[in-house]
Amino acid sequence: MKLVKAWEEEGVEIPAPYRRRIKVLFAPDKEGVEEITFSHAILPPEGRTDYHDHDRPELIYVVSGEGICVSEGEEVPIKEDVAMWVPAGEKHQIINTGYEQIKLATVFIPPYLAKDNYDRCREAALKAKEENK
Predict the structure, then answer these.
(1) pLDDT in tens, 109-127
(2) pTM greater than 0.85
(3) 55: burial class by Cβ within 10 Å (0-12, 13-18, 19+)?
(4) Domain residues of the chain, as ranges?
């Protein structure tokens, strides 16, 4: 068995405009888990992900908080204990509309490397920042 205490993991801070902290807890390059990527993301009030898609499906579970999920242009309210299955190629975004942080758990099968996951999120934030100069 592998055990990770999420609160002890530093993770990676993604800068504005897609401000959030991501902690990949299990992945091929994190704890040697070859089958999945399991991540933890914390979005502060007004935090958001970029509007993006993946080449594989994503399972997203709202652990706490509330906000909206934009999926293919449609906005759906989300809150604690909501699970979302996002098929490969479907554009989506999570936006924290509440006054507290929103905490998400995500799963990718097949897995991404933790490094690739972090890099994609950082690059999207940096690209958006450059475009808004």
Answers:
(1) 999 999 999 999 999 998 9
(2) yes
(3) exposed
(4) 17-131
